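Much of our argument rests on the idea that a fold can be written as discrete symbols. This step matters because it turns folding into a mapping between discrete strings. The record that follows shows the chain in one-letter code together with its fold in token form.
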Amino acid sequence: MRGNVTEMMAFPLIIMKGGGKGRSVAGAEKSTVEVDGRRLALSNLEKVLYPETGFTKGEVVDYYARIAPVLLPHIADRPMSFQRFPDGVEAQGFFAKNAPRGTPEWVRTVRLPAPGSSKNRDTLDYVVVGDLATLVWAANLAALELHVPQWTVGPRGAVREPDRLVLDLDPGAPATVVECAEVALLLKDIVEADGLTPVAKTSGSKGMQVSASVRPVSDERTSAYAHDLARRLERERPDLVVSRMAKNLRDGKIFVDWSQNNAAKTTVAPYALRARPQQWVSTPLTWEEVAAARTPQDLQFRAEQTLERVAELGDLCAPLLEPGPPLP
């Protein structure tokens, strides 16, 4: 275990318990706090972002502050795409890739090409969340969802080759995350036989992801390997698996999305919140939990539950932080 979240927590000013209505610091609409030597102005902490449970912005900030010891290593040096919901999850959110106006000068950004930008930009200044202060700053922007690529950038912003493989498991109704778990176990056997160490996590929505650390290699290579895995499973289990993207093929099956390895795409980070009716989290799982899943509720975890799991189990995604072997 990499450390107890409560013991390692460096931001003690906001402590929200459970999923209740929440309380702002000193009952104020705005509060100035110091996080690792940085002064941050937090606002609207009592604003409810998850109406179904009453989970507030203050509780979002608190969750990210407390989960930071295990979250930060998985997003450090990875350009961040935020999905922001300033008016809560029942209102329209938006993706934010470019650092917003007013970004503090101490927040690390990297300027990268932006092919296909909806605003016709040649480049974007991506935020890189590598420390607690930046994470709290982002949470205060109601950046509920954190999405990162499978590659990192160097100290001067140079793009490195991907060091992670990911297979996104997307169920087509009436299939659910329970069927995703069945497919994840099939993937586990194949990937382990190829010398990789797979880890599983919920998407925090309706599906799952299976990931593994790999020796840095081109995204064409990781995509090709993932595509081969998906097609193999489709041949072996055509009743359960589809590898093709056409949505009319997915009814009652699990789409093994190999395309998430494309360098232009991102995947929700481990321990990140999702903009769902409740404060569900993309939560790492033990393989025993994957095998034991019988209902979707078995694989749904809210923010407070995820914190409890980390305190008990540590970082189940820790193998992703170790150097990986070459792809076969």
Q: What stands out?
A: DSSP finds seven helices and 16 strands in the chain. The helical segments are 5-8, 57-75, 132-140, 177-193, 219-236, 287-292, 303-313.
